[in-house]
């Protein structure tokens, strides 16, 4: 099944990879194909500091999670 996701969905998965949205995006069975607009990475980069402050994770952890989540999105 193809699913279009926006920045808010990806933002949520990065902040909480063990939540419901994170579980869907990081599903090891790859039951879904996720698609997002090209400006998604620009939006995520624009709110990078907010991701760090809200998650209380280190910058390297946020970058790792961002890379992991984005690897599942076309």
The number of E-state strands comes to 2
N to C succession of SSEs = EHHEHHH
Task: State the helix count.
Answer: 5
| Largest sheet report | 2 strands, parallel
Average pLDDT for all residues: 91
Instruction: Report strand order across the widest sheet.
Output: 1-2
Shape: globular
- Spans of at least 5 consecutive residues whose pLDDT stays below 50 are none
Oligomer: single chain
Radius of gyration: 12 Å
Helix content: 55-70%
Describe this structure in words.
The chain is built from five helices and two strands. It has 74 residues and is mostly helical. It has one domain. It has a two-stranded parallel sheet. The model has no long low-confidence stretch (mean pLDDT 91). Helix content is 57%, strand content 8%. It has helices at 7-15, 20-25, 40-46, 48-55, 59-70; strands at residues 2-4, 33-35.
What does the secondary structure layout of this molecule look like, with pairings?
Layout (H helix, E strand, L loop, with lengths): L1 E3 L2 H9 L4 H6 L7 E3 L4 H7 L1 H8 L3 H12 L4
Parallel strand pairs: 1-2
Features:
single chain, 74 residues, mainly alpha, two-stranded parallel sheet, 5 helices, 2 strands, 57% helix, globular
Quick synopsis:
The protein has helices spanning 7-15, 20-25, 40-46, 48-55, 59-70, and strands at 2-4, 33-35.
């Amino acid at each position: 099944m193809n699913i279009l996701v926006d920045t808010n969905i990806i933002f949520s998965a990065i902040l909480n990879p063990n939540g419901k949205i994170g579980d869907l995006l990081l599903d090891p069975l790859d039951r879904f194909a996720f698609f997002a607009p090209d400006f998604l990475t620009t939006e995520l980069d624009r709110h990078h500091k907010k991701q760090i402050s809200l998650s209380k994770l280190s910058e390297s952890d946020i970058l790792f999670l961002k890379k992991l989540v984005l690897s599942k999105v076309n």
